[in-house]
Amino acid sequence: DGGITQSPKYLFRKEGQNVTLSCEQNLNHDAMYWYRQDPGQGLRLIYYSQIVNDFQKGDIAEGYSVSREKKESFPLTVTSAQKNPTAFYLCASSVAQGSNGELFFGEGSRLTVL
Amino acid sequence: SQQGEEDPQALSIQEGENATMNCSYKTSINNLQWYRQNSGRGLVHLILIRSNEREKHSGRLRVTLDTSKKSSSLLITASRAADTASYFCATLNTGFQKLVFGTGTRLLVSP
């Protein structure tokens, strides 16, 4: 079945540690996105990538980093520079820039800083 | 930046009733989309309406768009307990760059 797989589903981190969230898609989509969701809030865009080896900052990129070495994969690293990293992280993909922008989401990763 | 603002923030109804939620946005758009999110899960795309369309239907869903007022509404008819979820509007700007999501409406449908 085609879709987006995020892992891990739950992650605990000590302060000062970097953690990497995995996002893999087999939809053959060009564009991939990372969003952050806080309780009772909407989604805020962290980073997005429209093509392999290229990515752009979203609205809240500080303290995060990404890579896009393969079309299928778009991992997100939450660095120690992110002051309030506890949140629900959602990865999504879409066919391509210039398409209608419909997003397909993974099931999310919940990060808790201890 | 948050583009859309949903209203109401929360809505509680009985099964069989209709649920209406509204979305307002700020800039010119190419299209507006509605998504559903069950608690602790990812979002699922429900319906898309283009800027040159005024109304669209899909099953029990009806979406309207008023570009002069920069607003949209989502109507769920004959609601079911399984419709309990959060609903988000999202707008694609005219540059086709990225979707911007609103703050969501939490819908509770009681049996």
In short, what is this structure?
Chain A has no helices and 11 strands. Chain A has strands at residues 4-7, 10-13, 19-25, 31-37, 43-51, 54-57, 64-66, 76-78, 87-94, 104-105, 109-113. The mean pLDDT of chain A is 93.
Largest sheet of chain B: 6 strands, mixed
Give the overall pLDDT of chain A as a whole number.
93
Q: Structural class given helices, strands, pairing of chain B?
A: mainly beta
- For the report, how would you describe the main beta sheet of chain A? 7 strands, mixed
Overall helicity of chain B = under 10%
- How many whole angstroms does the radius of gyration of chain A measure? 13 Å
Pair with the most extensive interface? A-B, 29 and 27 residues
Q: What best-fitting shape of chain A do the alpha-carbon axes yield?
A: globular
Low-confidence stretches of chain B: none
The total count of strands of chain B amounts to 11
Give the fraction of residues assigned to helices of chain A. Answer: under 10%
Number of E strands of chain A: 11
Task: Note down, in words, how this protein is organized.
The complex is a heterodimer of chains A (114) and B (111). Chain A is mainly β. Helix content of chain A is 0%, strand content 49%. Chain A contains no helices and 11 strands. The N and C termini of chain A lie far apart (36 Å). Chain B has 111 residues and is an all-beta fold. In chain B, 0% of the residues lie in helices and 59% in strands. Chain B is built from no helices and 11 strands. In chain B, the strands form 2 sheets. In chain B, strands 2, 4, 5, 9, 10 and 11 form a 6-stranded mixed β-sheet that branches. Chain B has a 5-stranded antiparallel β-sheet with strand order 1-3-8-7-6, with no helix packed on it. Chain B is globular and about 45 Å long. In chain B, 36% of the residues are buried. The interface between A and B is medium-sized, with 29 and 27 residues.
Compile the SSE list and pairings.
The complex is a heterodimer of chains A (114) and B (111).
Chain A: E1 4-7, E2 10-13, E3 19-25, E4 31-37, E5 43-51, E6 54-57, E7 64-66, E8 76-78, E9 87-94, E10 104-105, E11 109-113
Parallel strand pairs in A: 2-11
Antiparallel strand pairs in A: 1-3, 3-8, 4-5, 4-9, 5-6, 7-8, 9-10, 9-11
Chain B: E1 5-7, E2 10-14, E3 19-24, E4 29-37, E5 43-50, E6 55-58, E7 61-66, E8 71-76, E9 85-93, E10 99-101, E11 105-110
Parallel strand pairs in B: 2-11
Antiparallel strand pairs in B: 1-3, 3-8, 4-5, 4-9, 6-7, 7-8, 9-10, 9-11
